[in-house]
Design brief:
elongated, 47 residues, single chain, mainly alpha
């Protein structure tokens, strides 16, 4: 389960960094918040 969470968060961070390079800070924040919620749901549901 942790591997799945790690890859999901890693991908979200990479996407957010790309958005930040384009100065799309709101979009970057939304990507991170979405990933946080999805990972919390996965963790709470046991994967």
């Amino acid at each position: 389960m942790y591997k799945k969470l790690y890859f999901k968060l890693f991908a979200a961070v990479a996407d957010a960094l790309e958005e930040m390079e384009r100065a799309n800070y709101g979009s970057a924040a939304q990507l991170l918040l979405q990933a946080q919620r999805e990972c919390e749901d996965l963790y709470a549901g046991g994967g």
